[in-house]
Amino acid sequence: MKLDPNARYAETHEWARQEDDLIVCGITDHAQEELSDVVYVELPEVGQSLDKGEVFGVIESVKAASDLYMPMGGEIVETNDALEDSPEIVNEDPYGEGWMIKFKPSDPGEWDDLLSPEAYEQSVASGV
Amino acid sequence: MTETLKRTNLYQWHVDHGGRMVPFAGWEMPVQYPTGPIEEHHTTRRAAGLFDIDHMGQMDVRGPQAEAFVNQLITYDVRQMKLFDAHYALMCYADGGTVDDLFVYKLPDRSGAEDRPYFFLAVNASNREKDVAWVQAHAGDFDVEVRDLSDETYMLAFQGPKAPEIMNRLTHVDLEAVPRFTAVTDTIFEDVPVLLGRTGYTGEDGFELFFPAEHALKVWEGILKEGEPEGVKPIGLAARDSLRFEPCMPLYGHELTADITPVEARLSFAVSFDKDFIGRDALLKQKLEGPDYLLVGFEMVDRGVPRHGYEVLHDGMDVGDVTTGMFSPTTGRYLGLAYVPREISALDTEIEIVIRNKPKRAKIVKRPFYVPAYRR
């Protein structure tokens, strides 16, 4: 499983990274591997405000649809339009080109509640 | 709740090669290998893929009245088949609903005093017990013997444009002389007696192989090795589903059920109305009057992935259900199959598919989505 050392993680398999005063978010390498081939990603409207843990979108693989959860609360400022035509980017580059949303966090302190790369790896290894 | 899942003789091979094992029709089968279902799909369309489908069932029917018996049991007229022909057919209930769909092989029975045909049936895994019981229950008045051969028979499918030339390197008989929808018997890998049907469930050229189950690993690894230069790969159930979906081949439990007839499913090519069989009167009536519901193909206009069980709307009214839907790897489109009332089954009719409680626009399009290679 690949990890981004600069990111923090949610137990629901999203990663979050700080970019100036924004948070970039996508799904982890472990998650894309479990899902297998991604065929569709549905992302929120820009301007929408969502709480931590709220569903911000849906990812569909060949066999199933799964919800995507906000790792922190915030207002969506940008979504990755490239995923509309090429959802497979999520499989190819989950921490880079496969990012999903950028949001302005409503409570930057929620960052501290997220898992470190080591803690996330451990939570996956302990068999979630 | 806990049910013991059956495993094929290749179970350990699948696990050792990264197969992701899932429950399917009472079996633990590989849904995909590490390269993923979309790549497996393309491999089969462009080169060739090998499928472990030993979960499927097989029966044979022998005896002086085998032909008469099989003929009143299945929709297709087996009297018009020549020896070594293979044909798609269905078994129906008296009301026309479908017991199962199957492939029937007409083969020479040399066990009797004189040559006469016997029939070999390949049926769905999910229906195996039901089918055997159904066939045996109707055998009463006929001088026939029905055997369930599923345990001792191994079944593989080898499908794709490169499959014939690769298989031809492994057989004694020249497979160029074995046309589509016929079969041949041979011995491969020195001592494996095999029945090779030039049939399949992918829309590609290729074969379905039947041979004694103890040879599973030898045949499986032998074909993979022989096909290595051409890029042959093992293919899981997810790609098997997308490969059968694009040419719009039905899957029992989806496009066919006890409540759906072959006429509604647009499978009349496999129904011989001019002979008697169980369900014939109901099917003929439906054919002449026109069925209330028909299977249609549709394409999403709005973005979204249609899936089995999703509601179909027309002018805001619930008119039917999606039977199969997915992203189609070959066409790059989001496509589906659904049953809708005949009045709204015309091409270009606008419908909506309810995806996560939101109606998304779709329109009825031509089937099949992918024309099988052997029909081009």
The fraction of residues in strands of chain B falls at: 25-35%
Provide the CATH topology of chain A: OB fold (Dihydrolipoamide Acetyltransferase, E2P)
How much strand content do the residues of chain A show? 25-35%
CATH architecture of chain A: Beta Barrel
Q: What is the level 1 CATH name of the largest domain in chain B?
A: Alpha Beta
N- and C-termini, Cα separation of chain A:
14 Å
Strand order of the largest sheet of chain B: 10-11-12-9-3-13
Order of helices and strands of chain A: EEEHEEEEEHHEH
Helix-strand makeup class of chain A? alpha+beta
Described by its quaternary structure, the protein is: heterodimer
Q: Which regions of chain B have little confidence, pLDDT < 50, spanning 5+ residues?
A: none
Number of helices of chain A: 4
CATH class annotation of chain A: Mainly Beta
What does this structure look like?
The complex is a heterodimer of chains A (128) and B (376). By secondary structure, chain A is an alpha+beta fold. Helices cover 19% and strands 34% of the residues of chain A. Chain A has one domain (8-107): Beta Barrel (OB fold (Dihydrolipoamide Acetyltransferase, E2P)), CATH 2.40.50. Chain A is built from four helices and nine strands; from the N terminus they run E-E-E-H-E-E-E-E-E-H-H-E-H. The longest helix of chain A is centred in the last third of the chain and has 9 residues, at 117-125. Chain A is globular and about 35 Å long. The model of chain A has no long low-confidence stretch (mean pLDDT 97). With 376 residues, chain B is α+β, with helices and mostly antiparallel strands. Chain B has eight helices and 19 strands. Chain B has helices at residues 11-16, 37-46, 66-73, 128-137, 163-168, 216-226, 237-245, 280-289; strands at 20-24, 27-32, 49-52, 57-62, 86-92, 98-109, 116-123, 145-148, 153-159, 183-188, 192-197, 206-212, 233-234, 293-300, 311-314, 317-328, 333-341, 350-355, 358-365. In chain B, the strands form four sheets. In chain B, strands 10-11-12-9-3-13 form a six-stranded mixed β-sheet. Chain B has a six-stranded antiparallel β-barrel with strand order 14-17-16-15-18-19. The longest helix of chain B is centred in the middle third of the chain and has 11 residues, at 216-226. Chain B is globular and about 65 Å long. The model of chain B has no long low-confidence stretch (mean pLDDT 97). The chains are: A alpha+beta (128), B alpha+beta (376).
